[in-house]
Amino acid sequence: MTAEAMTTQAVSTATVRDLYPTRGAAEVSVPRQDPVVWGSPDTPGPIANADLQAFERDGFLPVDQLITDDEVAVYRRELDRLVADPAIRADERSIVEPQSQEIRSVFEVHRISEVFAKLVRDERVVGRARQILGSDVYVHQSRINVKPGFGASGFYWHSDFETWHAEDGLPNMRTVSVSIALTENLDTNGGLMIMPGSHRTFLGCAGATPKDNYKKSLQMQDAGTPSDAALTSMADEHGIRLFTGRAGSATWFDCNCMHGSGDNITPYPRSNVFIVFNSVENTAVDPFAAPIRRPDFIGARDFTPVR
Ligand code: 6CS
Ligand code: FE
């Protein structure tokens, strides 16, 4: 099927089995039924085999320096430009902090900014995604998270795939995210936390998805939030790893890792650019557990492969 044809086809979930039931009456966990690394050892790309094995085991792969200091400066300037642009603030792609009304995130930066579009196409980025997913890839979602200091709120524990399956209609776990630090990620300013190994269990959450859920969930997630009991048992089993790193470092993580981040009450912003690559073999169908799809700027419906 040509790339063009892929962007129009919308397969109803009637023809796609739901391997990962969620948002029903009760919380239920099932083992992962998908590979973690879909590529084979001879799939070309920048990741060494030992690192691919670590990604398979842990569900994440830190990279000390994915982009250079000079490149960080370019992307920081672009982030600052976007955040300062009144048209961007007025755009539905911008999500503000509930308290301060400062910009918290801007979505779809790979389409509204040529600077971030170039980052997505960079072989150091898309090459790693193709290697992990074992196929051509497209961007399911991109965002810049500003996480300014003095009280920016964090993101409570969740699995991204649980939302992308329930609300965006991604059938399988063949999706990988990269968070590239544009400011220093300290152990104090609300860094990413992941439970190592949690990607191998899918936790179906209790509670139906409200209509237009995204208008709230991107500020404070509710539907798709695990119970305290489930989080306690996962944390007891897997532990919690906090990711720190200099600007230019990055963390690749599997779509089903249980992760979150704390508030940032320090004076030091924790800004990153977050890109989600999905395999062209795993294109979005209808939502598996939501009344309507989320807008394209959150869950892409253009499946054109990144070239
Ligand atoms: O709902 C989503 O798609 C977004 N929410 C979070 C907290 N992480 C993944 C994604 O950016
Ligand atoms: Fe997330």
From TrEMBL:
Q: Which Pfam families match?
A: PhyH
Q: Which reaction does it catalyse?
A: L-ectoine + 2-oxoglutarate + O2 = 5-hydroxyectoine + succinate + CO2
The protein depicted here goes by the name Ectoine hydroxylase
Matching InterPro entries, A to Z?
A: EctD, Phytyl_CoA_dOase-like
Which family would the database say this protein is a member of? Belongs to the PhyH family. EctD subfamily.
Essential cofactor(s) = Fe(2+)
| Known role | Involved in the biosynthesis of 5-hydroxyectoine, called compatible solute, which helps organisms to survive extreme osmotic stress by acting as a highly soluble organic osmolyte. Catalyzes the 2-oxoglutarate-dependent selective hydroxylation of L-ectoine to yield (4S,5S)-5-hydroxyectoine.
Superkingdom, taxonomy of origin? Bacteria
Has keyword Oxidoreductase?
yes
Q: How does it assemble?
A: Homodimer.
> What's the EC number here?
1.14.11.55
Keyword check for Oxidoreductase: yes
* Keywords recorded for this protein, A-Z: Dioxygenase, Iron, Metal-binding, Oxidoreductase
